[in-house]
Amino acid sequence: AQSVTQLDSHVSVSEGTPVLLRCNYSSSYSPSLFWYVQHPNKGLQLLLKYTSAATLVKGINGFEAEFKKSETSFHLTKPSAHMSDAAEYFCVVIPRDAGKSTFGDGTTLTVKP
Amino acid sequence: DAGVTQSPTHLIKTRGQQVTLRCSPKSGHDTVSWYQQALGQGPQFIFQYYEEEERQRGNFPDRFSGHQFPNYSSELNVNALLLGDSALYLCASSRGGPITSYEQYFGPGTRLTVT
Q1: Quick one: pLDDT band at residue B2, thresholds 50, 70, 90?
Q2: What is the DSSP letter of B75?
Q3: B22-69 pLDDT per residue, tens
Q4: pLDDT value for A62
Q5: Cβ–Cβ of A46/B33 closer than 8 Å?
Q6: What stretches of chain A adopt beta strand conformation (E)?
Q7: Which of A91, B44, B55, B74 could cross-link with A104 by S-S, CB 3.0 to 4.6 Å?
Q8: How close does chain A come to B81, measured CA to CA in Å?
């Protein structure tokens, strides 16, 4: 069995300040982990992925995430928020031997000017 | 290179009716997964098709069925529609096979409203 918990349903930051979106997971098998972003009325876009290579993963638009097996976490960070980062963010786990995706409930990121 | 395409964009059906949604995967992809996203929630995995067979299935009733064609496109069928089936239905494609990163590309979705 697998599950994903996004610890914050809403995060609000000021433009230019750091972003931290938290994700914890559980998986019976060694997982692949992903972050996706969904802008209003737009499709889901892949931000970054972890698939057993480097534990610090860099993605698009300045985002990065660190896989911490001991803490079963995969938190998403960005040093400096931009207004265009305002969107819904989803953490996803896929057990490597199973292929069945589990999405978290999402975190809404608001960026204040 | 076209990405994942879905049709129709919007659909309104009545309770008890049947609906078919369509998906064409990104070029080079052979695996299609379907998701249901209710308002304000994360996508829920319905099932995945690879080599024209259902490979994985989520916790959805048998009213939800699918098909994959030799050109890798896919259909999602829902029978006996309920009001609770109203949602955004997302299709995602990826490269399957024994070595896969499971990296999925999503289509824009089909908004189904059941009245």
Answers
A1: confident
A2: E
A3: 999 999 899 999 999 999 899 999 999 988 999 889 999 999 999 999
A4: 96
A5: no
A6: 2-6, 10-14, 19-21, 23-27, 31-38, 44-50, 56-58, 64-68, 73-78, 87-95, 102-103, 107-112
A7: A91
A8: 24
